[in-house]
Amino acid sequence: MKFLLGVVFTIVAIVIGIFIIITSGIVNVGADQKHSPIVYNLLETARNHSIQRASKDILVPNLEKVEMISSGGADYKDMCAGCHLSPGITSTDLSNNLYPKPPNFTNADIVERYQSEAGAGQGFWAIKHGIMASGMPAWGASHDDERMWAMVAFIRELPKLNTDQYTMLTTRFDEEILDVSLTDATMVH
After folding, report:
1. Would you say 126 and 149 are in contact if contact means Cβ atoms under 8 Å apart?
2. Which of 46, 99, 141, 167 could join 31 in a cystine, given CB atoms 3.0 to 4.6 angstroms apart?
3. What pLDDT is recorded for position 30?
4. Residue 150 near residue 68 (C-beta atoms within 8 A)
5. Rounded Cα–Cα distance for residues 181 and 170 (Å)
């Protein structure tokens, strides 16, 4: 019985200690301060296992379709490149000042994890639901699944693109651009 009371007392003391630390304000939550290695590893492990568990039943569509890859480009440029970069861009104001640093999707080693079906599902889940306290928004609140899958398809191809290919695949064409382009093309002939 004494042992059980000792265990309960220890658990209560730990909980009270954690509560005092958290409510005291001594924990620095500034994004310009790095976590201790223990806290960083704890958060990384929790994030990775959470995403793996939450995404395990997601059915991955055919991400190799050219239409899907190309349709994800413009959204990637508008919504992702500021943090996750693009060919020829090694940093931005956002990517430099976020903590933890967002993954650089122009790096083939980083994008390799999204090449498997499980990795693609995890990437989709992260795009759709975001990641708390990381700067990663939940795009599922304003975008349908098809658009988010197209971004995953594009991200899987991104490390293979040079700056010209990236520009071509991320340019949005609207009526005005097409009218000007078609008018210019007919004037040349």
Report:
1. no
2. 99
3. 81
4. yes
5. 17
Backbone angles phi, psi at 89, to 5 degrees: -110, 120
pTM for this one?
0.81
Q: Residue 166 CB: number of other CB atoms within 10 A? A: 22
DSSP track, 124-142: HHHHHH-BTTTTB--GGGT
135: number of Cβ within 10 Å: 16
Residue 73 CA: distances (Å) to CA of 27, 79, 158: 40, 10, 9
Q: Kindly state the DSSP code that residue 159 receives in the 8-state scheme.
A: G
Cα R_g (the chain), whole angstroms: 22
Which tokens sit at 33? 């301060």
Spans of the chain below 50 pLDDT: none
Tokens 């988010």 belong to 148
- Distance CA(157)–CA(121), nearest Å, equals 16
Among 96, 172, 94, smallest CA distance to 137 is for 94
Dihedral pair phi/psi, residue 105, rounded to 5°: -80, 0
Cα(first)–Cα(last) distance of the chain, in Å?
96
